[in-house]
Amino acid sequence: MKNQLQTTPEINERLEELIRSTHPPKIQNVVSTVDLGTELNLVVISNGARMAEYNPKRFSAVIMRLNNPSTTALIFQSGKMVCTGAKSEDQSLVAARKYAKIIQKLGFPAVFKNFTIQNIVASFDFRKPIKLDEFTKDQQYRPVVQYEPEIFPGLIFRKITDQKKITLLIFVSGRCVITGGKKTEDLNNVFKFILPILDQFKKRDLEY
Predict the structure, then answer these.
(1) Phi and psi, residue 185, nearest 5°
(2) What is this structure's pTM?
């Protein structure tokens, strides 16, 4: 895309200005998975663990929660576990290990393997309203954007980089949500990528 090819000193300077004036993405949720390596009896877990619930008629996993770090785990009979709610990659790892130790203390030969960050959701505020209609009509971005305000109020911008599918939700207020990242570096790269585009389609003061 055009903004990726432009690397003049003036454009680099403008990007630095945008970065300084916009708070970096704040992580809202980290989703990770881990394999506990053993079959689990979910009834035993729900009865033996604090802050755990299991209703097989509604969902086929134990839902367990921690206060520190504040997270939720979905624990399946197969031994697979999904951890959500962490605010950083390290926090997600700490939480997943705590859940695994709880399972071990209940008598299961659980191990901790294949820990993987599946998704990082973050948000930031550009602090300027965005002209989403013009954004959508621009020929350069039409193949990668979707905007149907009668269905969803935000513009959906899809970016594929290094085999990762990153999605940005861009709202007219300037608020943006990034999802699909696997590490913090992904968020920062997409943040720097999208700032000049938002700057291109921001509403000027006289347009408010």
Answers:
(1) -60, -35
(2) 0.86
